[in-house]
Structure prediction request, 147 residues.
Amino acid sequence: MLKIYDNTEDFTTYMGYEEIARQLDNIHVLYVHVPTDENIIEQIKYDYDVPYNDTIVLDSSTNNYQSLREQFKKEHFHTDYEMRLFTHGTAKFFFNVSDTFYELDVGPNDLISVPANVKHWFDAGEYPNIKAVRFFTEKDGWEANYT
Ligand SMILES: [Fe+2]
Prediction:
């Protein structure tokens, strides 16, 4: 599900991958539902030219989750695109483009890529249970620039 909030805090809800992908394409955010395939990570690295990856897990065993959560919920942007594949659990991704707010539910098999300089934040909720693969064009990954 995708909600797009206008500046009166009214929102429009979009359902279904194709419709959501179309709305996100308007702000150049890539949103793809990838097949379950044991080679999918290698395929993504090849298809999108992102040679490096790591895996992030947030769950009840995550140390310092509350302070991490505060960090993830801060609006920021990167100077490179941010690409990740969710493989387990659900979370919310938010984008702010010219003060229009996008709230996207993400879950297993969702691949998203946030372009450079697009403001965004992320929340795995109070009781996180999520696993995602992050992809990078460079070995050191991307840094967050907080707004
Ligand atoms: Fe980010």
